[in-house]
């Protein structure tokens, strides 16, 4: 099925809202919060897609409980060229609780770049080989569902394709949730698409110090693209995009909240306390946000409300 070419706009031609999650350090629950936002947005009746952009340690499918579900993953889009038809792509993705997800799939699906040919989709097939989208070679030579062979490629090449995919999804869904790595190249690549960047920050001394270094880098990565005259965004030059900070820790001192706001000059949306139900839910295959209570759900709902309110006021 070809996915390239002109993408379809959503109802009334209005593009969806894109919210990106970036961890200031590891262990701050950025992926968990991103997953919860996707699930809660879908529960509120919004068409939602969660996108894993962490090539090295992406695990969004595991957090969402989708690792065994059939559907397309990133390797299935290896031959995509140009902005995708988001609606057609969404129909091929696995879903959970009404939210679709584009992830990398199982790490053991990766093969050396020299293996060639496998995982080609978008209507392109190797001559004489009838490969199905979402299938890859298993050890016995049989194609397994949802495990297209991962083609190693240069990061710039992948990011160019990822931008086209996200642009197409934005035109087809109400909410697009990006689970990003700590990599300024990813933020720069997505800067023209995102409406909000959420930076998750831990509360111990080392994590706060990392946040102090991360905030200026996030600003720089976004502004380098959004404020340049050649930005791909149509219309007037967009204003600077300030990251929203979410604190993550067992206890969050009020002084720390004020310190971050004053010292880093960023809005602190709030704090996510330890939620004993999250780990149990993940073990049981239930995604974050499936329960209608808990600190993670409360923060997800707060972020969604803030996102919609900000864009309505723009």
UniProtKB/TrEMBL annotation:
<dbReference type="GO" id="GO:0005829">
    <property type="term" value="C:cytosol"/>
</dbReference>
<dbReference type="GO" id="GO:0016887">
    <property type="term" value="F:ATP hydrolysis activity"/>
</dbReference>
<dbReference type="InterPro" id="IPR027417">
    <property type="entry name" value="P-loop_NTPase"/>
</dbReference>
<protein>
    <recommendedName>
        <fullName>Secretion/DNA translocation related CpaE-like protein</fullName>
    </recommendedName>
</protein>
<dbReference type="GO" id="GO:0009898">
    <property type="term" value="C:cytoplasmic side of plasma membrane"/>
</dbReference>
<dbReference type="GO" id="GO:0051782">
    <property type="term" value="P:negative regulation of cell division"/>
</dbReference>
<dbReference type="InterPro" id="IPR050625">
    <property type="entry name" value="ParA/MinD_ATPase"/>
</dbReference>
<dbReference type="GO" id="GO:0005524">
    <property type="term" value="F:ATP binding"/>
</dbReference>
